[in-house]
Design brief:
Layout: E1 8-12, H1 23-33, E2 37-41, H2 47-52, H3 54-57, H4 60-63, E3 69-72, E4 75-78, H5 91-111, E5 118-121, E6 137-142, H6 155-168, E7 171-174, H7 177-183, E8 190-192, H8 199-202, E9 223-227, H9 236-245, E10 250-254, E11 272-276, H10 283-287, E12 292-295, H11 301-304, H12 309-317, E13 321-324, H13 327-330, E14 337-339, H14 342-354, H15 358-368, H16 373-389
Parallel strand pairs: 1-2, 1-5, 2-4, 5-6, 6-7, 7-8, 9-10, 9-12, 10-11, 12-13, 13-14
Antiparallel strand pairs: 3-4
Helix pairs in contact: 12-15
């Protein structure tokens, strides 16, 4: 994006600001660092979800009253009021929620002095906002197939809401090739911009002089490592199979556990170690002890249409990677080993642990340089410029 003109961005996110960092957070920070002003609007939380997670979300019921809070230079975060549940199951409830949310966002944008912002949305529930915030351009960045989500979600309802949004925005950006075909109908323009990685950060895990995190430094080796949130789309049954097949291995799971994750298969397995959420700054120190990395998705609609951040992060470390057979893993032919069933997965792990290929590790690290977040950010800015200046 040209540095001669600065824009105001309103980002409608599906994650809170203090969640594990994804492209939403990175793009917000990068725009702010370039002098653009950014209002990051956190995910909608409904009353049922608030009650389930009350211990962590108690203050959310009134936090929105304080308005945007500045977290960095040029960057503000807005918490929304708690909304009616079932907005992902009913178009009517979503519309009612939006009637209350729209004037709040309008008011807070005015309060910050935003004029003619760029509206950058990640949520399929936001079609009602398009054209109502005085925006000069509206972009929908689709990072997942929300129609395949679980929980209080009706795929058909989400599909209809999302279709309205795609037809209303100036540009649709998707993160995986499978999403292009699935979402492009009705879009004015479509760009594929995959996920990326903070190469220099993750590459620290390959530095021999970089210290391992103390809580995991003395775990029994070899260590099979998983990085990221344990969500419902992660095949915990596969992880349990690996743990049972090799009780002499340690399975180290680095990251938090989502409320919808199925953790029952992992119960009672002594060689599974969970760290819980750790600060992003400490990720390389934990990943450093991985001898091999795993990408154990359930093979379903989610896996078919997603771009796992962890794959890029693993590649940046240079460490061996075993994955289930999903489209994004196939993009890294020769750098990621594909396994088609649990027995193949274990066999691939055994082979990776037996062969420490330094040349392959270097090829992975070189490949990661092609997927740095700066490249992704520049691609997103180029796509935005085409919208703004190509009219």
């Amino acid at each position: 994006m040209s540095h001669q003109s600065c824009y105001d961005f309103i980002i409608l996110s599906t994650q809170d600001w203090d969640a594990l960092p994804t492209r939403k957070h990175r793009f917000a920070r990068m725009w702010a660092a370039e002098g653009h002003r950014v209002l990051y609007v956190e995910q909608q939380m409904h009353w049922a979800g608030w009650l389930v997670d009350l211990s962590n979300q108690f203050s959310r019921a009134w936090r929105w009253l304080a308005g945007p809070r500045q977290v960095e230079q040029n960057l503000w975060v807005l918490t929304l009021p708690i909304v009616l549940p079932f907005f992902q199951m009913s178009g009517l409830i979503n519309a009612i929620n939006n009637v209350f949310l729209l004037p709040l966002i309008q008011m807070q944008a005015r309060r910050l002095g935003f004029r003619h912002p760029i509206l950058w949305t990640y949520t399929p529930h936001s079609a009602d906002f398009i054209g109502k915030l005085g925006e000069q351009a509206a972009i929908y960045e689709c990072v997942d197939d929300f129609t395949a989500s679980k929980g209080l979600v009706n795929g058909a309802v989400i599909g209809r809401l999302e279709r309205r949004l795609i037809e209303a925005v100036d540009l649709l950006i998707v993160t995986a090739a499978g999403l292009v075909e699935k979402k492009k109908t009705g879009a004015r323009a479509v760009k594929l911009i995959s996920n990326g990685v903070d190469v220099s950060h993750l590459a620290q895990a390959a530095d021999p002089s970089y210290p391992a995190a103390e809580p995991v430094a003395s775990l029994p080796r070899p260590i099979v490592g998983y990085l990221g949130t344990l969500n419902y789309w992660i095949d915990t049954g596969l992880l349990a199979h690996i743990a049972r097949a090799h009780p002499d291995w340690t399975l180290l799971l680095v990251g938090p556990v989502d409320l919808l994750a199925d953790m029952k298969p992992l119960e009672g397995l002594p060689n599974i170690v969970r760290t819980g959420r750790i600060p992003y700054t400490e990720v390389p120190a934990y990943v450093k002890v991985f001898d091999v990395c795993v990408n154990p998705y359930h093979l379903d609609e989610v896996a078919e249409h997603c771009s796992p951040l962890k794959l890029y992060e693993y590649i940046a470390t240079g460490k061996p990677i075993i994955s289930v057979d999903m489209p994004e893993a196939r993009l890294f032919d020769g750098l990621v080993t594909i396994a088609n069933d649990p027995e193949q997965f274990v066999a691939a792990l055994e082979a990776a642990l037996a062969n420490d290929d330094g040349e392959l590790a270097e090829l992975r690290r070189q490949e990661a340089l092609q997927h740095d977040w700066r490249r992704r950010f520049d691609a997103a800015n180029d796509a935005l410029n085409e919208v703004i200046h190509g009219r």
